[in-house]
Amino acid sequence: LKLASISQESPDTKYFKFRLPDHSITGVQPGKAVLAFVNDNESGKLKVRPYSLLYIPDEKEFLHLAVKLLNGDGTSGAFHRLKVGDEVTFRGPLPIHTIDYQKLSKNVNFIAGGSGITPVFSTIQNILLNHDQNVSLIYANKDQNDIPLKSKIDQLKRKYGDRFQLIYVVDKQHNFENFVSQGRINPSLLKQHLYSKDAQLFVCGPDGLTKAI
């Protein structure tokens, strides 16, 4: 697919839009992932890695992808060196576990860390738009200035109000709306901000986060 646009989502995260060849193609389903094959403009090597796609309701023209720079020599570095007009090959969707929306509890809790927000954001957006559950999100990052998809998450909060409980946790700096805690997620914070009755919990993030939960 040809890269149509690039925008800087945060200091380490870029937002990519790839043009779909046929506008009649159905948009990406929430939580789906694909395998990306990227030719690195610097090394000339082919980089391959799975990525979760962003769910954009009613989108039929573009494929949306947010990529956080993790390693300059890896696939994320190759993505960050792309220019508009470059082409990337995608294969998928991959056979990964997705949520059965018909079996969700009345209240749904999510805990995400760093770039693990991508499938979580897509799932939350679908729940709020197409279903009637209440959602709580605790989202952990190192720095308030590098929170992937923060602007889009804040838009959901403004739109859905009390149906969407949003909490940010950061290691450094904290002077923005919905901030609640500096440091790491802890049992007290979970008890205070997650739904406990008729509720489910989903976690997506680095190994350290998932093991701690």
UniProtKB/TrEMBL annotation:
A Pfam match: NAD_binding_1
Superkingdom classification of source: Eukaryota
Membrane topology designation: Single-pass membrane protein
Major subcellular location class: mitochondrion
Annotated ranges, domain FAD-binding FR-type: 1-100
Entry's family note: Belongs to the flavoprotein pyridine nucleotide cytochrome reductase family.
Name assigned to this protein: cytochrome-b5 reductase
